[in-house]
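Per-record layout

source: Aquilegia coerulea
name: Major facilitator superfamily (MFS) profile domain-containing protein
length: 503
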Amino acid sequence: MAGGGYVVNGSTSNSSNGRLTMSVIITCIVAASGGLIFGYDIGISGGVTTMEPFLRKFFPSVLRKMADAKHNTYCVYDSQVLTAFTSSLYLAGLASSLVASFTTKRMGRKYTMVLGGCTFFIGAVINGAAINIMMLILGRIFLGIGVGFTNQATPVYLSEMAPPKWRGAFTIGFQFFLGTGVVVANVINYRTAQIGSWGWRLSLGLAAVPAVLMTIGALLVSDTPSSLVERGKLEQAKQSLQRARGVGINIEDEFIELLKSSEDSKLLTNEPFTTIFQRQYRPHLVMAVLIPFFQQLTGINVIAFYAPVIFQSVGFGSNSALVSAIILGLVNLGSIVMSMFVVDRFGRRVLFMEGGIQMVVFQVAVACVLGAKLGVTGDQQLSKGYAILVLILMCMYAAAFGWSWGPLTWLIPSEIFPMKIRPAGQSISIAVNFATTFVLAQMFLTMLCHFKFYAFVFYAGWITVMTIFVALFLPETKGIPLDSMHIVWEQHWYWHKFVDRKE
C-alpha cells in the first residue's frame, strides 16, 4: 500500500542499534546549532521592519502609509523594496546551496558549515553598520550565502552521524535550533525596539553571535564517517564511526557498507547532478523538489517573516505585535520538541498528515475571522478580543507546522539519498526551498493587500494538496539504515516501477 511499513530484509549492521553515546549527542547538538543562524535571521528581519527608526531610514514610504488615516489595513506594508530586504537573502542562499554540493563532497560537511558561519558573520557586520539600502541588501546577500552553506551541510551531517533508531530526533534538532533562533530574535527585537534610533542596528548586528558560536562548534567536532570515507580518509572514518556508535559496538558491517557505497559512487561516469536525473532516482528527485516546495506553500515562512507586521496590521500595537510574535515562536518551538520525541516512534507519515489537516483547519479559521471582522475593505482594526483570537488560531497552526512540515522537510531529503547523489540531492532540496521562499516572501505583502483574508485560504488549499501527496507517494522511512533506504522505494506501490532493484 501507499507508503506503508517496510521490512528491511537481509543483514544490517550490529551498530545500527548501538547505544546513544555522549560523543554522538554532543556532535549532533553542535551541528544542529547551524539552525540558529537561519532562525535568528527569520525572526530578526520581520521584527525590525516594524521599528519606526528602521522604516524612517530605509523605507519612509511605509511610514507615510501608516500615517494615512484612510489606509487599507491589509496594504500598509505593501512595499516591494521592503520585501526585497527580506527576500534577497534567499536568492543568495539558492546560488550558494548549489555550490555547497561541491564543497560538502570535496571539503566535507564540517568545513562547509564553518564556511557558512564565517560568511554569515560578515553579513551580520555589514547589516549592523548599514547606512543605505544597497549596503543593507549586500549584507543580506552575505547572510544568504552563509545560510545556503549551513542548510545544505547540517541536515546531511546529522543524518549521517545519528544511529538509524534515533535519526529522526537528531535531524529534527536542526529545526529545534532554527525555532530557538526565531524566538531569541523576537525577544531581542522586543527589547531593542525600546532603545530608540539605533535599536535596529543591535538587532541586525547580533546575528554575528550565533554565527560565531556555530563556527567554533563546527571546528571542534569531527566530520561524518561517510564524508571521510568519500574523501579517502579511511582510518579517521573508522575512528569517527566507533566514537559515534560506542566502544565495544561492532562497526565492521556498517563500515563495510560505507566503503561499498563509496566505491559505487566512484564508479559513476557522470556528475551527481546528472546522475540524479536518471530514471532509477526519479522518486528521490521528486521528493527533493516537492517536499521543500510544499513546505513553503504552507505559508509558514512568510508568516514568520511578517508575524509582527501581520499582528500590527490586524489590531496589535507595535510592542504588542512583537510580543505576539514571541508567543507564536514559543508555540512552534514547543511543538518541535514534541516532534523530536515522537517522530521515531510513530513515523514521518503520521506527523505529515495530522499536521496538514490541523493547518488547513486553522488557516481557514483565521480567514473566516478576518473576513467577518475586516472584510475586503480592511479600513477598521480588529477589537482586542478578536485580535487575541487570531493569535490563538495562528498558534494552533504554528504548532501543527512545528511537529510536521517544519522539521520533516529537513529530515526526509537528508535520509533518502544514496551516498553517490546525497550532496546533489540535498543541494537541489535547499535550492528549491530558497527559490520558493524568495518568490513567496517577495509577493506576500502584495498578495495580502490584494487577496485580503483569502491569502490564508490560498495556503490552506495548497496544504490540502500536499497532504494528499504524502498519503499517496511518500513511503515511511523511520528506522531504515541509510544504506538500506532503497528498499522503501522498491516496495512502494508506485515508485517500484522506476527503481533499479539491482542497485
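summary: The two ends are 22 Å apart (CA to CA). The chain is about 75% helix and 0% strand.
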